[in-house]
Amino acid sequence: MSTNSNNEQSGHNEGYNFAYLDEQTKRMIRRSLLKALSIPGYQVPFGSREMPLPYGWGTGGIQVTASVIGPKDRLKVIDQGADDTTNAVSIRRFFQMVADVATTEKVLEASIIQTRHRIPETPLNEGQIIVYQVPTPDPLSKIDPRESETRKMHAYAEYGVMQLTLYEDIARFGHIAKTYDYPVLVNGRHLMSPSPIPKFDNPKMQDNPAIQLYGAGREKRIYAIPPYTTVKSLDFDDHPFSMQSWSGCCSLCGSTTSYLDEVITDDSGGRIFVCSDTDYCNDRQAQLLCDEHSEVQT
Amino acid sequence: MSLRSSHQFSTSPTLKPGLADPIFDAQSVFRAALSANAYPGRRVSIDRALDAPQPLATSTAMLCLSLMDLETPVWLDRQTAAGDVPQWLRFHCGAPLVERAVGARFAIITDTGALPHLNEFYAGEIQYPDRSATLIVQVPSLTEGPTSVWTGPGIRDSASVRISGLPSWFWSDWDVNADHYPLGIDVFFTSGNALVGLPRTIKVEA
Ligand SMILES: [Zn+2]
């Protein structure tokens, strides 16, 4: 890829195109994104480019973000719910370098949120864009690895075989074993992988006011869920969809409604549960301190 | 690619300019289009200036410059094709112009009285419905005209939308388009510096 056509008008690192991609590539991805919104949940093929990060590091999500982002944006990047993991830090630095873009850890300050493995606990607003990094875009690829076959299944909404796979779980384990990347039916028509988010997050995709975009770099697909769209997790009348739940609460902020990670605290096997969404947890801890403080004063 | 910077090769001294800031204007216009398509029925304004060629409105011309290139065959209605637009499009976008509506990825309509029926445009393939045409339909007003009620993805409850200048058969053609989902065309209505998105998922009561 050519990296020698600098843009004189922007303040970003010289030697790169703004947001790394050349303008023709951005146009191609932008057209794909518009069609993706017009056919919710349908996988649009796109000409994925080589990125300076390896596959598995969110090259699909990065290309989507790079095609969307501009000087007025503020970017948040999370990995497993945290802003400070290696993957999130690398991607945030990448966009600071190639797009000179403002960043934040606060969900409500961000105009674009790129994510791997979580949807923030704080509800999103209209106009916000969430970009998911997707390793395996087609939920049918485990049933048939040939894209020529899965495209036919999507074309005619032949999703019975997917239902059957889930039902085999029920026959074997008494419940559906899948706990993340749990397939959804979008707008009553297209079967879609939500990316490897926990199924706990699936209900957040439904009727979300924000724009949800999905990019798979290695598999060269883009798809989307428009705001206020029906997103139904596959299930059965006798085995309705259910989310993970915990008997306790977050040891740091006391939340009983967030997704919790188990953390080992010492060598003798002591363990606690804490929020996976660190920004949400930090906010709640700060609020608790604040509340305690004002109680002391009154 | 340096199509935009080689002004000395302009074949007409009156050829109107392209985007003043090719990178950030295109990004800003795309975001307007993304919003319009994500929130159908809402008027989205483009806050960038352009000296557009007749008969294109600013928003129509901005969409062309931001989304079209040598990979997107474009069809123009007779009124649009009559002036400088063909030359302007070839020069700034490198987009091939096609004679038949069915061969186009983008179609530009400025004379809504002569709008072809919607089934004359390409609706995509059953395995690749994303390959369908996107129509840019320039209308006299997006704030006046008959009211229609839109429902579907991107709209909470319903949206009341006023668009002037559409032929009387337009919404019955649109019903047929929706019946072929996931095949179907998508539309941007443009007027002045504003646009309204109408993706194929939207049901309309006119
Ligand atoms: Zn917590």
Automatic annotation (TrEMBL), chain A:
InterPro entries: PhnJ. Belongs to the PhnJ family. Keywords: 4Fe-4S, Iron, Iron-sulfur, Lyase, Metal-binding, S-adenosyl-L-methionine. GO terms for molecular function: lyase activity. It comes from Bradyrhizobium iriomotense. This is Alpha-D-ribose 1-methylphosphonate 5-phosphate C-P lyase. Its EC number is 4.7.1.1. It is an enzyme of class 4 (lyase). Coiled coil: none annotated. Catalyzes the breakage of the C-P bond in alpha-D-ribose 1-methylphosphonate 5-phosphate (PRPn) forming alpha-D-ribose. The keyword Cytoplasm does not apply. The keyword Flavoprotein does not apply. It catalyses: alpha-D-ribose 1-methylphosphonate 5-phosphate + AH2 + S-adenosyl-L-methionine = alpha-D-ribose 1,2-cyclic phosphate 5-phosphate + methane + 5'-deoxyadenosine + L-methionine + A + H(+).
TrEMBL record, chain B:
InterPro entries: PhnH-like_sp, Phosphonate_metab_PhnH. Keywords: Lyase. The keyword Lyase applies. One of its GO terms (molecular function) is lyase activity. NCBIfam families: PhnH_redo. This is Carbon-phosphorus lyase subunit PhnH. It comes from Bradyrhizobium iriomotense. The lineage of its organism: Bacteria, Pseudomonadati, Pseudomonadota, Alphaproteobacteria, Hyphomicrobiales. The gene is phnH_2.
